[in-house]
Design goal:
The chain is α/β, with parallel strands linked by helices and about 475 residues long. It folds into two domains: about 190 residues, Aspartate Aminotransferase, domain 1 (Alpha-Beta Complex); about 240 residues, Type I PLP-dependent aspartate aminotransferase-like (Major domain) (Aspartate Aminotransferase, domain 2), CATH 3.40.640.10. It is built from 14 helices and 20 strands. Strand 2 and strand 3 form a beta hairpin. It is globular, with a radius of gyration of 23 Å. The termini are close together.
Length: about 475
């Protein structure tokens, strides 16, 4: 079915966001492209925000939006939740400082709470981001197995460093055969690191994945996977079960990257849904309550590679030949286990224990209603996702992996997103929706009204 666009949204967007444009021009004098992270940019220029509360966010032009980006899923309780603010205030009042640089009780208390939901994390370490967490997980797997290479899945994102910055959104013409994907670099500057290129696996295609893993078994330290790709395309249960069995047989560490899915697709993440225990798990986003954090956890034998010993620290001075530093996997960070962040994260988890089930029901209702509006207006829309995350894809076919997603009508989705921005519905164009406990009936009603307006007024069937 052809769709006719009878109103281009960019003129209205430009008129509504003039101050955002001016702010981005100023920022470009100091920041490359005017942004502090590439993910914050979109064409022609991003909206610059100045304040937020609950499910709402306001830009520098005074426009208000219902926020479905939620800092890429980090804000599971919405903006400025009272529980998190109170937890931070209490921590500072009790401890008298935001940072010790020493062990403190919140480190193990928070770990105890995490382990209750992720029992596969027999021991864990804190980092300052999800990227750092996956980087440490790979180093742990390499040290434990004694092998040097990793495998990742096409379309999966694990951070912005050399080993994994391949085949995230590769052009299909460059990506190779579906069952034998090529490692396509996603950044300049990777040319010098060709020996670190990962083996690329086809998601949700078991026979090809099995063949590639057996072919490279002797060199693979780990397979890292988003068990729900991008937070919204779930692995098939049999696929995950087979992957767990084969990696164990081949002595390849299995890493679940649950930075997006932790406390999102279920309180216990994707591993709770699938009933599968990976060797290593990475968490981030939600567990920081809106502050920077990452967690790596897994089998005690693997995590204990980083256990300190006497004379075993890279910073030990004057130890000479007695230093055991090379025998230990080095991991450190001034802000690891930051007390204020752990207090905020613990507050977020406590609130989710009360409200998560309701938020899942809200998300499921929203997904069904968006799909119904698509059918009503002759627009092919699927709201694909699990738990409190989903994405809207313009297709009538099933989405199983990256290549299916690339065959959907991405231009139509982008047009819908810009029209929705003009109606006060915010997410970065083409991005997923993350629902928070702050989204309620009013937000749902306003969102569906905006969708109805956009689909009826802006798009129509072409005769």
């Amino acid at each position: 079915m052809a769709i006719q666009n009878i109103e281009h949204p960019m003129m209205k967007y430009s008129n509504r966001t003039k101050n955002s444009y001016r702010e981005m021009e100023k920022a470009a004098n100091y920041l490359p492209g005017g942004v502090t992270a590439n993910i914050k940019h979109f064409s022609p220029y991003p909206v610059v925000m100045e304040s937020a509360g609950g499910a709402w966010i306001k830009d520098v032009d005074g426009n208000q939006y219902i926020d479905y980006l939620m800092a890429y899923g980090s804000l599971a309780l919405g903006h400025g939740h009272d529980d998190i603010k109170q937890a931070m205030a209490d921590q500072l009042a009790k401890d008298g400082t935001v940072l010790f640089g020493t062990p403190h009780p919140l480190e193990y208390r928070f770990a105890e709470k995490i382990q209750a939901y992720y029992p596969s994390m027999e021991r864990l370490r804190y980092t300052n981001s999800g990227t750092e967490a996956t980087l440490l997980a790979i180093r742990l797997a390499t040290a434990y197995t004694g092998k040097k290479r990793i495998a990742k899945f096409e379309g999966h994102y694990h951070g912005g460093y050399n080993e994994v910055l391949y085949s995230i959104n590769p052009p299909l013409v460059a990506a190779g055969e579906m069952d034998d994907p090529r490692p396509v670099p996603e950044s300049s500057g990777l040319e010098m690191f060709t020996d670190q290129r990962p083996v690329i696996l086809p998601f949700n295609r078991w026979q090809a994945t099995e063949r590639l893993l057996r072919q490279h078994a002797d060199e693979l330290a780990a397979v890292i996977i988003e068990p729900v790709q991008g937070g919204f395309i779930p692995a098939e249960k049999q696929f995950i079960e087979d992957l767990r069995k084969l990696t164990a047989t081949l002595q390849i560490a299995l890493i679940f990257d649950e930075v997006k899915t932790g406390f999102r697709v279920a309180m216990g993440g994707a591993q709770e849904l699938y009933g599968v225990k990976p060797d290593l798990t990475t968490l981030g986003k939600v567990v920081g309550g809106g502050f920077p954090i990452g967690i790596v956890g897994g089998k005690e034998a693997i995590l204990n590679r980083s256990r300190p010993k006497g004379n075993g620290d890279v910073f030990d001075v004057g130890q000479g030949k007695s230093s055991a530093a090379r025998e230990i996997l080095f991991h450190s960070g001034t802000y690891n286990g930051h007390p204020t962040i752990l207090a905020a994260g613990l507050a977020a988890i406590h609130r989710l224990e009360q409200d998560f089930a309701h938020t899942v029901l809200y998300t499921e209702t929203m997904r069904k209603d968006i799909e119904a509006l698509g059918r009503k207006n002759g627009i092919p829309l699927k709201a694909v996702g699990v738990g409190t995350i989903f994405n809207v894809v313009c297709t009538e076919t099933t989405i199983r992996h990256y290549r299916d997603l690339q065959k959907t009508d991405l231009e139509l989705r982008k047009q819908i997103d810009f029209h929705l921005l003009n109606e006060g519905i915010y997410t970065k164009p083409l991005n997923r929706y993350s629902i928070s406990t702050a989204h309620g009936e009013r937000e749902l009603e306003l969102t569906l009204t905006a969708y109805e307006t956009v689909l009826k007024r802006v798009f129509k069937k072409k005769n």
